[in-house]
């Protein structure tokens, strides 16, 4: 903004920008932009840089809360894991659910990030903003992950791409989740982030303290709660979801009660399979996938 710019010109420029881009970006993104602009011009006005707050009357668009539409039931999670197309994919879905990790955190895991501890193991997660958090894994989850290791070194990725040999990509994790959901008959555009939502929802349902879920997920704050208790690094909300696996088997569930063990998790070396190319579009709705994807 140039010094001495007439307020009318500034206001018109702001409106033109919003009209030009408002239809091209997601509603939630537009709402963040409008709120940022309102905050900027409020500061400029209060600091004396702008005699009038030209953004005062701007209203951000209403963002529909779709979280309720993106919550998997516990039965859905069981079906999703048992319909994974390989042992690696089964463990990936298990870890994504029990830890609530972001997809980028899952993709970036190396074996050095897993540390054996009494009663299971500890996951060292390097999350958003360079923040490190420690998540305790109960024995059943720890053992399921450890079975994948084989002769891998500490610097090797936990989830290896069979095509390229390095870390799995975020798009491939999306394919793995979509393939399992399709095979499980879950009629919804399930994404890896849905397992993060499921972790929080199910852990709280099973009695996990809110501050513990906050720590496990790596949230800096939860707006509905003002004060959080100190979280010990030797505890995490993962232990409230260890029902999902026992003795190398994924458990079936009715309501909140475990009924039987199904879908044994065993590790075998599978030959590489051709991977269908992921479309360029980043929209969840644009991704089509075969249930046979096992990269």
Describe this structure in words.
The chain is an alpha+beta fold and 295 residues long. The protein has 2 domains: 1-64, no CATH class; 67-286, hpI Integrase, Chain A, CATH 1.10.443. 36% of the residues lie in helices and 12% in strands. It contains 9 helices and 6 strands, in the order H-H-H-H-H-E-E-E-H-H-H-H-E-E-E. Strands 1-2-3 form a 3-stranded antiparallel β-sheet. A 3-stranded antiparallel β-sheet has the order 4-5-6. Strand 5 and strand 6 (257-264) form a beta hairpin. Helix 3 packs antiparallel against helix 4 (87-99) and helix 4 (87-99) crosses helix 8. The longest helix is centred in the N-terminal third of the chain and has 20 residues, at 27-46. The protein starts with 6 loop residues before the first helix and ends in a 31-residue tail after the last strand.
Please describe the structure with a list of short key phrases separated by commas or semicolons.
295 residues, alpha+beta, 2 domains, three-stranded antiparallel β-sheet, 9 helices, 36% helix
